[in-house]
UniProtKB/TrEMBL annotation:
It comes from Sphingomonas qilianensis. Its main location: membrane. It comes from the Bacteria. This is MAPEG family protein. The chain crosses the membrane at residues 73-99, 119-141. Keywords: Membrane, Transmembrane, Transmembrane helix.
Length: 146
């Protein structure tokens, strides 16, 4: 039997790929409109795109980058929880909460991007990650008597 915590992991991976598609679907036309020729582009930096493209387009790319950052810890802690046999019940629910908050964060950042709301969503997901980390530590470091 598999661990339920694997489901939110797969969901967040799928969401990340959707954000990649959304980024490409908005960024490539914006690059063309800005006269950026991908065939001639050499050694650019993210700041170059921030200067050349509309901020609303870049918000999607920024969020995609964010999905490559903290969620890597989420994937690692979920794997630890799954491997210790504690990935069902409350841990699966916390993982789903993390995913829901990250998706809400993505949509908010990609469309509206008011930082105070974005920060609240990030803080909520971070607290869920802390809870999962504590549960993983308890499962890994627990001592067995007898």
């Amino acid at each position: 039997m598999h661990s339920e915590i694997l489901k939110p992991m797969v969901a967040l991976i799928a969401w990340t790929l959707l954000m990649l598609l959304w980024t490409m679907a908005t960024r490539l036309p914006a690059m063309k409109a800005a006269g950026v020729d991908l065939g001639r582009l050499v050694g650019s930096k993210p700041a170059d795109a921030d200067q050349a493209l509309p901020r609303e387009v870049q918000w999607k790319a920024h969020n995609y980058n964010h999905l490559m950052e903290q969620p890597t810890l989420f994937y690692a802690v979920c794997l630890i929880i799954a491997l210790t046999g504690t990935g069902n019940g409350i841990n699966a629910w916390i993982a789903w909460a993390y995913v829901a908050l990250r998706i809400a964060h993505s949509i908010w950042q990609a469309m509206i991007n008011k930082v105070s709301v974005r920060f609240a969503l990030f803080l909520g997901s971070s607290l869920a990650l802390v809870a999962l980390t504590l549960h993983a530590a308890m499962a890994v470091f627990q001592t067995h008597s007898g």
